Amino acid sequence: MTESFTIAPVIDVAQVTQDSRPSEREVVFDIHDLTVSYGRVTAISGVDLQIHRNVITAIIGPSGCGKSTFIRCLNRMNDLVPGARIEGQILYQGSDLYASGVDPVEIRRRIGMVFQKANPFPKSIYDNVAWGPRVLGMRKELDERVEKALRSAALWDEVKDRLKKNALSLSGGQQQRLCIARAIAVEPEVLLLDEPASALDPIATSAIEDLMHQLKREYTLVIVTHNMQQAARVADLTAFFSLEVDETRRSGVLVEYDATSKIFTNPSDKRTEDYVTGRFG
Question: Is residue 257 a part of any domain in this protein?
Fold first, then answer.
């Protein structure tokens, strides 16, 4: 255990989220010895982690440590990457995500994902949100479903009078909230967010962060972020990944996982302390 230290000014300790007592919450993902390789390159190795229901879990760490690789394992997006090999076990609500017979399309419906760059379809705002339900045959009361998703994404009041307008006419922050609405329109249980605000200005970023706090009432959220202030502001729990290099390979490893308040004010591992205080990374 490292000694207590005064954190660098990069983080406002007053904003750090308090421990949400995850031990009392249901485990959604139970991950054991997860290793992911692309060809001969090991991206992450030996990750053990539990993710809890209705909690925001942040994944932080330097570039190249496997944060995005990790989050893409949670809804089998890495299946789409040629040469990707996943070892270990990911249990989702007690069931093996990678067991034979598991439908990855159904997994991605239940575990939605929002990417770093907003990627609305070149269609109307309405059709963007309705696209997933239509594909999945969820056409009953579609207007109500679209409105509910847009309301949940805190976008309805801004677009309700222009639903037939092209989604590309929206601002960057609105486009990202539209992508969140599109993800939740198919009624997922989990939302994965990979750097969802990295391309946004501070006002749009604040709107996305406020939205995350609202969404965790209904969803389990996992967010990858390079922005430590953002992790401190929004996350209940934080996992710090780092890059481990030896003579034969370099791979991302999970260094420490704990309440966000502890990660940023009194971490257990010197590597975490060095990262959150800006000594490296």
Answer: yes
| Residues 178, 163 contacting (CB under 8 angstroms) | no
User: Domain count of the chain?
Assistant: 1
Could you give the 3-state DSSP secondary structure of residue 200? coil
Per-residue model confidence as pLDDT tens digits over 168-223: 999 999 999 999 999 999 999 999 999 998 888 899 899 999 999 999 999 999 99
CATH number of the domain that residue 194 is part of: 3.40.50.300
Domain that holds residue 45: 13-276
Tens-digit pLDDT profile for residues 238-271: 999 999 887 677 899 999 999 999 999 999 999 9
- What is the strand order of the sheet 84-92 is part of? 95-96, 84-92, 27-38, 41-52, 250-259, 237-245, 56-60, 220-224, 190-194, 111-114
Residue 115 lies in a domain: yes
Of 172, 162, 181, 74, residue with least CA distance to 116: 172
Q: Does residue 281 fall inside a structural domain?
A: no
Separation of alpha carbons 119 and 37, rounded Å: 27
Residue for token digits 């249990």? 91
- 157: its two tokens: 């009041």
DSSP letter at 189 equals S
Block residue for tokens 């006002």:
203
Using the 8-state DSSP alphabet, how is residue 93 labeled?
A: T
φ and ψ of 250, to 5 deg: -130, 135
Question: How many Cβ atoms are within 10 Å of 120's Cβ, its own excluded?
Answer: 23
Burial class of residue 105, CB neighbours in 10 A (0-12, 13-18, 19+): exposed
Tell me if 7 is assigned to some domain.
Answer: no
Pair 212, 232: CB distance under 8 Å: no
Phi and psi at residue 115, to the nearest 5°? -95, 170
